[in-house]
Structures are given as structure tokens and as C-alpha cells.
Amino acid sequence: MKTFNNLPELPNEITSNWLSSVLGYEVEEAIQETLGIERGFMGDVIRVHLKGDKRLPPSVVIKLPKKVNRVFGELLGVYEREIMFFRELGESTSLRIPKKYYSEFDRDRGSEKQGEILALLDRLPLFMSRWVNAIGSKIAASKKRRYILVIEDLFNMKPGDQVVGLDSERCIQVLTGIAKMHKRYWKNKALDNHFWLLKLDVDAKLRFGIFKSHVENFRNSVSKSLWPHLDALKSGGPSLMRKFYAFAPTTLIHCDLRLDNILFDGNSCAYIDWQLVRSGPAAFDIAYFLSSALHAQATEGEIEQILHAYHSALNIGDYSYEDLLSDYAYGLRMVLLNLTHTGDVELGDNRGKEMMDIWIKRLSVRLDQAYQDKRLNNSLQTG
After folding, report:
1. Where are the alpha helices (DSSP H) in 149-219?
2. DSSP letter assigned to residue 249
3. Is CATH 3.30.200 the right assignment for the domain spanning 11-152?
4. Is the pTM of this model over 0.90?
5. Which terminus of the chain, N or C, has fewer Cβ atoms within 10 Å?
């Protein structure tokens, strides 16, 4: 493993001298401000106000692994993945994202084999998935790798608030924006050249095993309206997940497209927090965002308007609106599968728990609306 002697691990190790060395201009004073309290589950986000050379930006944002949830983040590979995204794909997404000033991490030869390892583990019998997850967590806990990302501070933009939610007009703004990236990488085989960019289905069996170990506790804590969808996931198994990935076209997806990860400035928006970025069905991003951000009171007509706007912005000739409807419905169930194991994640204080409760309620409404749509084919309605 390759390590770097002067790589900060804690906020108090980010000094003026260190910032001068990585930014290329003298920093005389660096004043830290913690951002995203109770919003960032995997990382600490720090705004650093800078004084010194006139060529310096007024401030930068620095991301470090969070002490709480560190093992879970290491297990998922989120810290390295975000850094590699900014290095290799960030500038080509067609989206407004923060500029990268500096990034580094301790190298681990095993990280380049992560996709292969997950694919191999996914071939193991389902009953071994819990054991494999436990072993993986122990290995992740033993790692002492350091990661740091220094990016542009988009301080003039207003962050979204997932608890408050959005109306349909703002949802259209976000999704017609992300459509640019989806279109840019639609069925693009070049995505396979990035070892760190995992396919969404590479660990389907492992994720289903985690789902099974949590589903009963989750079931007892949610509305009965979600039970048929939990039952469909449970009976469908990993094959249901793979069916979604097999039939839905693949592109580059954010994979954590929540309102807390969107910044707004009038009619434009920026997309932040790329720790979970993967290749997979575009509709997963759509389902993820509408289930978490759109008010529960939104009508089916409003959702139709949003989906039509996204489909028009995507403008892929062989991808019909009916295809999008089916993929969106599948995607909602994949979001539900992901949310069943949130018990493994420390949600922080009141806001994190409130956000998750609201998300589950909105998701329940979105699922009811989607699976009552008569245009969905029979196989989707039943599975």
C-alpha cells in the first residue's frame, strides 16, 4: 500500500502550510467551518475560509472520511470512488459540479480488484452472504487508509433540503439536468474502463442477503402499504434485481441523487457528493430522487409531467416513455431494498431520522402510484 507522509486525517491537521503546498499559493490564514451537520452520513465536510495570496479562492470545501460510519464507507469503497470520479470523469459529465483543486488517498492494490472480488463473492450461495458481509466489515475496519478531497466552494448556491422537499417544477429542473449526463454516457462501453466504477448489479446477491437479514425488522416499522413490495422483493430474490439491470439501458448514474446533494442558483443547479456513483439504469436515479424529494402530496399528473420532461430532455430514440415508466417502477423497488438496511448507518441526531421517516413515507406513495398504472406490463405488476 502506497502512503503519503503529510496527508491530513483529521480537520485539525489541515494547516495553512499544508493548504499552501496543495493549492500552489501562500495561505496565511485558514478558518474552518463545519458544513452539512446531520446531512453527510459517510464523510465530514469542511469549509475553509482562506486569506493570503490574491490568486486564492475565498474558500474551499474539504471532504474527509467520517469517524462514525467509517467502516461502512470503507466497505462500500465510497471515499476512493469519489476521488477517482473527480479525477477521471468529473469534467466530462455535462453537469455543473465543483472544480477539483486537490485529491489524494493511500493506495491499496486490492481496490483495483474490487469489482472482480465482488463478482466472485456474488457467485457464492445466498446463505453465505451474511458471513461474507461480516468478514468484509472486519477487513474494512482494519484498514487505516486516508483520503482527502479539496474542491471548489459553491458558496453562492443554496443547498436543497430533503426534509422540506421540492415541488414538481424544481424536480423537473434537477432531472432535466441529470438527463444530460445520462444521455452523455448512454450505453457507453467506455465506462467499463474505470476499475473503480462498479456496476449497480455486481453485488446483487450480497445486497439481497443484507436485505433479507433486515427486512423483518424494517417491515415492522413501516406502513402496511409497503408490505406487498417487500414481499415481491423477498420472493423475487437477486433475479428480480438482475432483471431490472438486464433490461434497463446502462449509463453513468449518481446513485445518491438526494435533495441534500443538490445546490440551486436561480434556474441552474449543481450536483455534489459523488461517493456512490456507479454505472447502471438511469431510472434508478429518477426513482431515487422522486421518492426522496417530491412532496408526498404530489398528484399522478404531476409525476407524469416530471417524467415526460425528463424523457424529452434525455431524447434517446429507442427508449420509449413506456420503457421509462417500467424502469422507474422497478427502480422504486430497488430504492426500497436499499432503505431496508439503513439500520447499519448512524443517522445522526433528529434530522437524519426525520429525513429517513419522510423518505419512506414519500417512497410508499410513489410505489402505490407507480404500480397502479395500467400501462405497466403484467410481469412488472406481479414482480
Report:
1. 168-184, 204-219
2. P
3. yes
4. no
5. N
